[in-house]
UniProtKB/TrEMBL annotation:
Keywords (A to Z) from UniProt: Ligase
Gene Ontology terms for molecular function: ligase activity
Protein name: 2'-5' RNA ligase superfamily protein
InterPro entries: Cyclic_Pdiesterase
UniProt entry tagged with the keyword Disulfide bond: no
One Pfam family cited in the UniProt record for this chain: 2_5_RNA_ligase2
Organism whose genome encodes this protein: Pelolinea submarina
């Protein structure tokens, strides 16, 4: 099973995303994202294989030395391939891009089979709102989410690793509060 390295949010940011997930569901737009058991997040990397103990050690040392990330989500976006996915996108600041690249560098020797879309230079930072949508559901989801007042500030406070599917959280570590 593959592994994802993810950024988790503080409680208010997480609630904001969960409220969007609920609003979409209440408007007839089911999304697997809130049924698979993963918290709202931004995926930093996905690997086919990950050696857990060295990875855990690296992340446990990295997290308390690395400050929370304050993200300004300035737009909604859509991936169209291989499936339609609606997402909330943070502005890709130098801080976020460097954080992402550092994670890949840090875990390089503990992983195999990195997914190309999450590699530095390819990655589009995003928080998934709805996935596996047909065109009608995508149009409805865009209509529902069109009421989100942008920009939205999200506060990333933890880094974690999950195995999927089914989703199993392996570890998470708090980033340093400044």
């Amino acid at each position: 099973m593959p592994y994802a390295v993810v950024l988790y949010f503080n409680k208010p940011s997480e609630k904001f995303i969960r409220d969007i997930w609920s609003n979409l569901s209440e408007n007839g737009i089911p999304s697997e994202i809130h049924h698979v058991g993963i918290r709202p997040h931004i995926t930093l990397a996905i690997y086919d294989e990950l050696t857990c103990q060295p990875c855990d050690s690296e992340l446990s040392r990295f997290a308390p030395q690395t400050a929370h990330l304050h993200l300004d989500c300035t737009h909604l976006g859509v991936f169209t391939q291989p499936e339609k996915v609606l997402f909330l996108a943070p502005t890709p600041t130098r801080e976020l891009i460097d954080f992402h690249a550092h994670i890949h560098s840090l875990l390089d020797h503990q992983t195999r089979g990195p997914w190309e879309l999450y590699q530095p230079g390819q990655w589009v930072p995003h928080c998934t709102l709805a996935l596996d949508l047909d065109q009608v559901k995508l149009d409805q989801a865009m209509s529902v989410c069109g009421n989100i007042e942008l920009p939205v500030k999200l506060h990333a406070t933890q880094i974690g690793v999950v195995e999927f599917l089914p989703v199993t959280e392996m570890v998470h570590f708090d980033l340093k509060e400044i």
